[in-house]
Design brief:
One of its GO terms (biological process) is regulation of DNA-templated transcription. This protein is an alpha/beta fold. The protein has two domains: 113 residues, Response regulator (Rossmann fold), CATH 3.40.50.2300; 92 residues, Orthogonal Bundle (Arc Repressor Mutant, subunit A). 38% of the residues lie in helices and 24% in strands. The chain has eight helices and twelve strands. It has a five-stranded parallel sheet with strand order 2-1-3-4-5, with helices on both faces. It has a four-stranded antiparallel sheet with strand order 6-7-8-9, with no helix packed on it. A hairpin with a 2-residue loop joins strand 8 and strand 9.
Length: 215
């Protein structure tokens, strides 16, 4: 799972990054709002945003994130107690708000809950599962390595278990905001279907796809 972290306090930034990397997640961390703003379309599974950061504030970044990602969790981590800013954070689409100072374990709990990830492996059914850190699907003991786009697509499906994932969402998440034709998306779906042969990926009236899982 790829995590986006914006925190201008270098010590806290490094501590959060280390915590999640020890869980096997890939963390892309930023100290500057402008740099973070220019990298939000790189297929992230979760966003952790401070508000008061140099150059571009976290609320502006949050609004931009919601232009690309409808359902990807966003957690605001901030020391502000201004009610107006807290209200704006939720109205702009944040999923949770964690006031500083906080225990990093508390942030970890929120991220795992919001992303619906109980551990590093997610079961499709009793004989197949996906390992986030290794980007490998195991079915009946056979391991199948995923390409970068296949891995991003599986992450997107698992963030939206048994829910519609639109073509637009796939384009923004898997192609990182760049244009992708319907044919390119369908080709990727076909490739993934060959590897996930114990689960069901179904199309929905040219709107997108569902990944049905038992767990």
């Amino acid at each position: 799972m790829k995590i986006f972290l914006l925190e201008d306090n270098k010590t806290l930034n490094e501590a959060i990054k280390l915590k999640f990397e020890l869980k096997g997640y890939k963390v892309y961390s930023y100290l500057c709002g402008e740099e973070a703003f220019n990298n939000i379309t790189n297929g992230f599974s979760c966003f952790l945003l401070d508000i008061h950061v140099p150059n571009v504030d976290g609320l502006k970044i949050l609004k931009k994130i919601r232009e690309y990602y409808d359902n990807v969790p966003v957690v605001i981590i901030s020391s502000t107690v201004e009610l107006d800013i807290i209200k704006k954070s939720y109205s702009f689409g944040c999923n949770d708000y964690l006031k500083k100072p906080f225990f990093i374990d508390e942030l970890e709990i929120k991220v795992d809950k919001l992303c619906n990830i109980p551990d590093n492996e997610v079961l499709f059914d009793e004989k197949s599962f996906f390992n986030f850190s290794e980007s490998i699907i195991t079915i009946d003991g056979e391991k199948k390595v995923l390409t970068e786009k296949e891995n991003l697509l599986v992450n997107l499906f698992l963030l939206n278990k048994n829910k519609l994932v639109s073509y637009e969402n796939i384009q923004n998440y898997v192609w990182k905001g760049e244009y992708a034709s319907i044919d390119a998306i369908r080709t990727l779906i076909r490739r993934l279907r060959k590897k996930i042969d114990k689960t069901t990926i179904k199309a929905s009236s040219n709107r997108g796809y569902y990944l049905y899982v038992e767990c």
